[in-house]
């Protein structure tokens, strides 16, 4: 369904984690949002980060994506320290993210939204942009866009402007845009929030499809049902600390986790 | 109207027919007119190049930038100085003007394009005032308040380019501006510009460097403004520091706003309206500014998307254009 050549080559046989956080802390003024959080995400897994409000999930997510930098600690992605790299550099390395709100490019069509995700933005050729000479073919990216639109179910609204869509549709467009970049690690920020159960089924299918294709997925989510359905690995956060880390069935039985949730 | 795939802003496709239409009208203008009409037509070309390039910055890129006049003025001065003091050919002068204005834009843009909204507006306005002061003070090079006179005229072979023949050159420059802007909007760079305007965070998450895109937009617009400055210099063959009055940026801004921000057809209409009406009705400056003020209020109240948006709605209501 998706072309995977790049990812297949990128998947080494050793089991080095694709993402590793080493004692990440984040303070906002006097407030400690994250305290000494370390975790590893293995290649090819679906990892869920859960926790009650204020647990530091979103901060953790932003630090991995690169929109917030940690006060201390480091982010290791595919063996490289990316702690100081801006978000767009991480995206170019195959680390794609979505947002809690859909955040589409509202004046663009659905097709162009996803095309922006599919295109390589590492070089800017202004001469070709101004003259339309020496242009590279867009055919590959366009074909990928059609594939993705089918995968996330927006093919029939391809030429509509994103601002005219429902929230659920915008959500799928944004997810499609992230998938179109052919990510090695896909970060999803509360992907099920505000979705109908039918949309959630489509989302689960898209996430499973991406994983089957070799993408590692990390999602931050409130929806416990979705996490239990999807994840191989769960990280539980509480008041800025990691209080649980393991397979879903183990985490569910952990006393600290049960206590935190009942206390909350 | 069938929607061609991959076209970024919906209204940008209007360029496809606006460009040749505007071009034919402008080309025909001076043939039943006198020298005065030719001057108006050349000035109109200059203003259109300026408003179209300003629209790339404020409309398509969403940057509230008030230093356009500085890039225009510096372009005009560079050409005048290179031609008069260094004896360069006008065509080399054009390259020099583009280079100097674009470099200036890169220099000021690097820190300033990180600012947003009113902060960007104030910083660029301050820069514009600064350039005006510098040009006025550097009188050994720029002639100060007195300006530069008797710039050598441009020649094409043995043909002296003046009057109607220079107007043809101005039209070619306007056409090139259309061509460049249209190409940009239909390219990957165009999508990067719109994506950065619509949502800088999501653009960055897609691998786009928003600061670089904003900066490149500013540099290209400055280069186009320098071309307008070149046309001005080699038509009038004289210039002074009135050219650098920050007021001009506001006049072009009004033209863009009245026409409809980010809307090429609208910007052409806004520019024609606000350039020609005061000219032919013989308004003095005070009355013109008053008239622009009244027009701005009316547009804000009754056509918030500008005259271009108003036309769009009318076409839709009469069924000539299908709702998207």
Summary keywords:
heterodimer; A: 264 residues; alpha/beta; Rossmann fold; 11 helices; 38% helix; B: 324 residues; mainly alpha; ABC transporter involved in vitamin B12 uptake, BtuC; two-stranded antiparallel ribbon; 14 helices; globular
TL;DR of this structure?
The complex is a heterodimer of chains A (264) and B (324). By secondary structure, chain A is α/β, with parallel strands linked by helices.
Tell me about the biggest sheet of chain B? Answer: 2 strands, antiparallel
Main beta sheet of chain A, described?
6 strands, mixed
As a whole number of angstroms, the C-alpha radius of gyration of chain A is 19 Å
SSE arrangement of chain A, N to C: HEEEHEEHEHHHHEHEHEEHH
| Helix percentage range of chain A | 25-40%
Number of helical regions of chain A? 11
Contiguous low-pLDDT stretches of chain B (5 residues minimum) are 1-13
Q: List the strand order in the largest sheet of chain B.
A: 1-2
Number of helices of chain B: 14
Secondary structure topology:
The complex is a heterodimer of chains A (about 260) and B (about 325).
Chain A lengths: L4 H6 L8 E10 L2 E11 L4 E5 L6 H9 L6 E6 L2 E2 L5 H6 L2 E3 L12 H9 L7 H6 L7 H13 L15 H14 L4 E5 L7 H16 L3 E5 L3 H7 L2 E6 L2 E6 L1 H6 L1 H9 L1
Parallel strand pairs in A: 3-8, 3-9, 6-7, 7-8
Antiparallel strand pairs in A: 1-2, 1-4, 4-5, 9-10
Helix pairs in contact in A: 4-6, 4-7, 6-7
Chain B lengths: L14 H14 L6 H26 L7 H17 L5 H23 L4 H21 L1 H4 L11 E3 L2 E3 L2 H22 L2 H11 L1 H6 L4 H27 L10 H13 L4 H18 L3 H18 L3 H12 L7
Antiparallel strand pairs in B: 1-2
Helix pairs in contact in B: 1-7, 2-7, 2-10, 2-11, 2-12, 3-4, 3-5, 3-10, 4-10, 7-10, 8-10, 11-12, 11-14, 12-14
Describe, in plain words, how this protein is organized in 3D.
The complex is a heterodimer of chains A (264) and B (324). With 264 residues, chain A is α/β, with parallel strands linked by helices. The longest helix of chain A has 16 residues, at 197-212. In chain A, the strands form two sheets. Chain A has a six-stranded mixed beta sheet, with helices on both faces. In chain A, strands 2-1-4-5 form a four-stranded antiparallel beta sheet, covered by helices on one side. In chain A, a hairpin with a 2-residue loop joins strand 1 and strand 2 (31-41). Chain A is built from eleven helices and ten strands. Chain A has a domain at 1-94 and 185-193 and 217-264: Rossmann fold (3-Layer(aba) Sandwich), CATH 3.40.50. By secondary structure, chain B is mainly alpha-helical. Chain B has one domain (10-317): Orthogonal Bundle (ABC transporter involved in vitamin B12 uptake, BtuC), CATH 1.10.3470. Chain B has helices spanning 15-28, 35-60, 68-84, 90-112, 117-137, 139-142, 164-185, 188-198, 200-205, 210-236, 247-259, 264-281, 285-302, 306-317, and strands spanning 154-156, 159-161. Chain B has a two-stranded antiparallel sheet with strand order 1-2. The longest helix of chain B has 27 residues, at 210-236. Chain B is globular and about 50 Å long. Chain A binds chain B through residues 65, 67, 86-88, 91-92, 96-99, 103-109, 111-112, 115-117, 119-122, 124-126, 128-132, 135, 138, 142, 159-161, 164, 174, 177-178, 181, and chain B through 3, 5-6, 8-10, 180, 183-184, 186-192, 194-195, 198-199, 201-210, 212-213, 216, 220, 324.
